[in-house]
Amino acid sequence: MCYPAHPLDAPMSLFHSSTGRPVGLLGLQALRPHERHDEAAAQRLAARIAACGLWTTPIAVEPSLHVILDGHHRWHAAKLLALSHVPAVIVAYDDPGVTLDSWRAGETISARRVLDSAVSGTLLPVRTTRHAFAPEIGLIDLPLAVLARRGPIAPTVTAASA
Q1: How far apart are the first and last CA of the chain?
Q2: What average pLDDT is seen over the chain?
Q3: In the chain, beta strands by DSSP E
Q4: Where are the domains of the chain?
Q5: Are 159 and 61 in contact (CB under 8 A)?
Q6: Which pLDDT band, with edges at 50, 70 and 90, does 150 fall under?
Q7: Helix intervals (H) in 5-150
């Protein structure tokens, strides 16, 4: 399958996670899931995030197609909380610190299959893929009010200049 050119051009406000990874704020609607989520788990997570008042774990996103690699329940929780942006760490499959495996015994998963699932909209079952990152994504403490703002969040840069 051929993928359309779709560069990561959403505005990003840069800061760093606890492991030093750059974190940007991406528009919620720009992201593409590749696997389904458990609705009840997403609702419980949204309740915990709302009670805390902080977003603590960025979502891992592939840069060319905006595919969510890790954080489907967080992405859906953000939708339930009516947020406009989510914190994201941009990671590409050609990064040697990114590994892909399956939570399901005996199932082989490839980056191509992940990207195809996202582009086609034929989502994989819940907890099919297992992405690991070195260094780890890390933690942040970002007030939810920042993520609820509409429009660009300043200061902004594009992925090309990041």
Answers
A1: 29
A2: 85
A3: 15-16, 22-27, 54-55, 59-61, 68-70, 85-90, 98-102, 129-133, 142-143
A4: 15-161
A5: no
A6: low
A7: 39-52, 72-80, 111-120, 144-148
Bridge partners of residue 16, in order along the sequence: 22
If DSSP codes are grouped into helix, strand and coil, which group holds residue 124?
Answer: strand
Contact 152, 30 (CB under 8 A): no
User: What is the sign, positive or negative, of the torsion defined by CA atoms of 21, 95, 8, 128?
Assistant: negative
The percentage of the chain sitting over the pLDDT mark of 70, rounded to a whole number, equals 84
State in words which class domain 15-161 has: alpha beta
List the one residue out of 65, 81, 80 whose CA is nearest residue 30: 65
φ and ψ of 37, to 5 deg: -130, 165
Q: Which residues contact 154 (CB under 8 A, 6 or more apart)?
A: 13
Task: Compute the C-alpha angle 144/150/9, nearest 5°.
Answer: 100
Residue 39 near residue 80, CB atoms below 8 Å: no
Q: How many CB atoms lie within 10 A of CB 17?
A: 19
pLDDT of 3: 33
CA gap 97, 65 in Å, rounded: 19
The crossing angle, in degrees rounded to 10, of helices 72-80 and 39-52 is 70
- The pTM is what? 0.84
